[in-house]
Amino acid sequence: METSALTRPSGEIRAGQAGTAEGRLLPLALLLPGIAVLLAVIAFPMLYSLYLSLTNYTLTNARNFHFVGLNQYITLFKDPIFWQAFGRTVLFMTLAVNLEFLIGLGIAQLMAKAIRGRGALRTIMMMPMMFAPILIGFMYKWVFNSEVGLANNILYTLTGRAQIIPWLIQVPLGFISLLIAEVWMSTPFMVIILEAGILSLPTEPFEAAEVDGASGWQKFRMLTLPMIMPFVYTAMAIRSLDLARVYDVIRIMTDGGPGNRTEMIWTYVYRLSFTGHNYALGSAMSYVTVAISFLFTWYLFRNVIKSRWEGRE
Amino acid sequence: MNSELSRRNGRSDRAGRRRYWTDTARDILLYIIILIFFLPVLWVILTSMRPNVEINTRPPVWIPSQLDFDSYKILLGMPTPEGAFALGTQIPFGSYVRNSAAIAVVSTALSLVLGGLAGYTFARFRFRAKNVIFLSMMLGRAVPGVALSLPLFVLFARLGLSDKLLGMIAAYTALNIPFTAWLMDSFFRAIPEELSEAAIIDGCSRWGALIRVDLPLALPGVAASGIFAFLTCWNEFALASVITRTPASRTFPPGLYEFTGSFVTDWRGMTAMSVLMLIPSVIFVALVQRQLVQGLASGAVKG
Q1: Does pLDDT of B298 surpass 90?
Q2: What would the pLDDT profile of B130-158 be if each residue is shown by its tens digit?
Q3: Cβ contact (<8 Å) for A16 and B126?
């Protein structure tokens, strides 16, 4: 921590300009601790699992495994359940991100203009973010319980007749229940980022539009929306990344069942690796999915980076 | 002149009144939406406090007939009436509190320091391969716990870190560094560089300028990153369920699982523990929500 570069007086504080060896090394030195942790805890284990995905390692046969090349990947690509889970996850992501965005934008718009009790409202609004995803899983499993669940109970109270809708079991309903839980859980994050976006807007254009007699919708469409696009983009990028890892809630609510009807990528990976003990196949599947996630991340963040540092370099 | 003035006043009065009513209507709409979002939370809270017989009933009992805190008493180790049904009696609540708190606090602090340093570096230095390094860091966020859990378990077992607080702290710190670095980079970039340059000209060391000038201005960023990191540590399940095997290191989220038996689920116990779990998060969020939103608004997310 006591490198002389840190205590160097003015003039050379921009390491890039300094051009000395020390100046070039300082940023790397500052980044090193964080990178070291990431390498040790994420990169190294992931490389180990890449290696395991090229063997026939299983949890019951953890000693006598040998190299089998790309066999696990070939098995995987022939597996229709994998492709179904993959398609379902992509559909789930797409629907969830867009629903969260639309609902979040609506609430953020109301919240940014709220006069009374904004702090308390925001705290209550953020409660779903504070719930452990696993608890949300248990909670919604219970909400959609066909016998005593909240959803059927509300229908019972409203209609006066007992309703036994098997929410988590019927084909489109299971998916919809998961979607509701996910949207409930993650919309607050959208609200926070988008509300910040709306609050960051300058007031002058809105006053000018008011003078010109623009309607509320016109102001929203022509001013608010284009100006908060960076926030929209950021929020959607983060949510997409998180949704690509969606697991806890689904694991608890349906665990991909019944009979793979709501199977998503990560519940299937878990089933293959731990329940089915075929860890190598599970790793292969993780790898395919993580690779796609990486491409996706790269695509999303390339744009973030472009707008981020280009002005300076 | 006079009539002209009064007419104009009248008009703005009417417009003002209309504005008042539309604002009120909008607030009421917002309250209703928030209430709908809040209903499941309320249901959890009510369930934790109602008599057990009212939990799985048809027709539903909405409002508890009486408040009953047995589940809380069981968790907190207070004497309870004979025969109170609960799986909660076997749950080492005290050690979950200790483990969760230690892991969340230490690893949030660590990821703030390490991620904050990284964010500062990205914001203030130009260096080769910056974009590649930044992107590689972000990839860390794309790796899900399920994929990481077994290799990490094997690694920790070799290092003697499995079922240890230290292992969980390392894992969660790594999970939080990418997002913290990203947010802190945004916040540091929103602070004009001239401020710290001026401080350095005035005789501050670079390190001193960071601590005395940049850091106080980036405090909303620290609050925002801190809350996200804390919530991740406090609520994470996939890794914790594989790495923490015993009460020696087990945290709340895998602990919630213990309320589900093979044939019964102790909903009341589970919801009671969830409510207790929620308290620190609510306090934390209530304290920093304003800084969180204002910080994000002050140009931090842009670009």
Answers
A1: no
A2: 888 888 888 888 888 888 888 898 899 88
A3: yes
User: What is the chain B residue with the closest CA to A31?
Assistant: B118
Cα–Cα dist A110/B300, whole Å: 22
B-chain residue closest to A297, CA distance: B139
- Domains parsed from chain A with CATH numbers: 72-309 (1.10.3720.10)
Q: Tell me: the pLDDT tens digits for A208-259?
A: 988 888 888 888 888 888 888 878 877 887 888 788 778 888 988 888 778 8
pLDDT digits (tens, 9 = 90+) for A280-296: 888 898 888 888 888 87
What contacts B247, CB < 8 A, 6 or more positions away? B92, B95, B96, B99
Peptide bond into A9 cis (omega under 30): no
CA distance A25 to A34: 15
Query: Is residue B59 located within the same domain as residue B168?
Result: no
Number of domains making up chain B: 2
d(CA B227, CA B214): 20
**Beta carbons of A9 and B203 less than 8 Å apart:** yes
Q: Which of A218-222, B19-23, B234-238, B299-303 has the lowest mean pLDDT?
A: B299-303
Asked if A309 lies within 8 A of B131 by C-beta distance, the reply is yes
- Provide the chain A residues 252-291 that lie in CB contact (below 8 A) with chain B: 266, 269-270, 273-274, 279, 283, 286, 289-290
Helix A118-125 to helix B2-49 angle (10° resolution) is 40
Both B210 and B238 in one domain: the answer is yes
Closest CA to A59 of B172, B156, B166, B149: B149
CATH code of the domain in which B136 resides: 1.10.3720.10
Do residues B106 and B250 both lie within one domain? yes
User: Which residues of chain A make contact with B189, given a CB cutoff of 8 A?
Assistant: 308
Residue to mutate among B121, B180, B290, with most A CBs inside 10 A, is: B121
Domain that holds residue B46: 2-87
A255 Rama class: left (phi>0) / alpha (psi -120 to 50) / beta: left
Q: Which one of A41, A125, A193 has the shortest CB-CB distance to B37? A: A125
- Do residues B59 and A157 make contact, with C-beta atoms less than 8 angstroms apart? yes
Q: How many beta-carbon pairs under 8 angstroms link A with B?
A: 305
* Among B87, B108, B131, residue at a domain's last position: B87
Same domain membership, residue B264 and residue B229: yes
- Can you tell me whether residue A186 is helix, strand or coil? helix
Same domain, B139 and B10: no
The answer on B248 and B119 residing in a single domain is yes
* B199 and B289 fall within a common domain: yes
Are the Cβ atoms of A110 and B26 closer than 8 angstroms?
yes
Question: Would you call A12 an interface residue with chain B, using a CB distance cutoff of 8 Å?
Answer: no
- B253 and A46 in contact by Cβ < 8 A? no
Could you tell me if B108 and B183 lie in one domain? yes
